[in-house]
Amino acid sequence: MSFSSEVKQELCRVPLSRKCCAQAECYGVLLYCNTFSPREIRVITESDSFAQRLPQLLRRAFRFSFDRLPDGEGKHIFAVEDPRKLSAVQQLLGGDDRAPALHINFGVLEEKCCRAAFLRGAFLAGGSVTDPRKGYHLELTTSHLSVGREMLALMREMGLEPKAAQRKGNSVVYFKQSDRIEDLLTSIGAPLSAMEVMNAKLEKDLRGSVNRRVNCDAANLDKAVEAAMTQVESIRRLEEQGRLALLPEKLQETASLRLAHPEDTLSQLAQRYDPPITKSALNHRLRKLVELAKAEAESPRR
Fold first, then answer.
1. How does 213-252 read in b/e, with b if 16+ C-beta sit within 10 Å?
2. 26: buried, middle or exposed (CB in 10 Å: 19+, 13-18, 0-12)?
3. Beta-bridge partner residues of 142
4. What pLDDT shows up at residue 95?
5. Residue 173: in which H helix or E strand, if any?
6. Cα–Cα distance, 26 to 184 (Å, whole number)
7. Topology classification of domain 3-189
8. List of the chain residues with pLDDT < 70
9. pTM
10. Domain extents for the chain?
């Protein structure tokens, strides 16, 4: 099951308790469904849970039933064709038989709960959301451009801040930020799905943090290995030239320990002294050995 299907399944568990909210949800469905005109209402869906909710929603909102119900094969198709039913819907939502209500009638959405129900209906009919483990994208698509513009204004008024675009003649309102998607899903009645988006983001952030730490540790290890190799080569060069035996006792001791333990980190090598010395002191001695070897190598050219 896709994440969109899971979200719609959760939304369809929201009770149809208040008639005003049922009408608002049904309004969202109509403006984002396949056909909404004075001659026909047609809703086509692949969601089993939405198909089960639709007849209850229409009856609760308008007190009548669909003229056509799914035949049990393929996609679920619902339709209303009775002129009296269509006229009743248009009048209730602010339109008439000649001019269908293809604008958002804000008078139907005065209450906060009704606005949330309206968005829920719009998502059920024309919405989709990407699996948050793959990316962040939620959109609502309608063929009515005026509805798309007004939906954008409504969402911004609700503090949701979506973006808008046109695609193949349709109006698309969308979100690409995980926190905005979480806010929308929570407001329309899908808090569990919102939590899943949040958890996916946390997992991605944690994985990214671990990867950065691993990469940083690997880079530091590479640097430490490279430094140790340089130190060993410098010490051997000084030894071959007979200069190592002429150096102060502390530098000779450091050279001997580094040759004996080339794989040790500075901290490990510093603990091998008796008594142990600080990492800073050890680093200073090793750097001195490298500088002496380098100066000796360059002396013939001077």
1. eeeeeeeeeeeeeebbeebeebbebbeeeeebeebeeebb
2. buried
3. 171
4. 63
5. strand 170-175
6. 18
7. Endonuclease I-creI (3.10.28)
8. 95-101, 297-302
9. 0.71
10. 3-189, 210-297
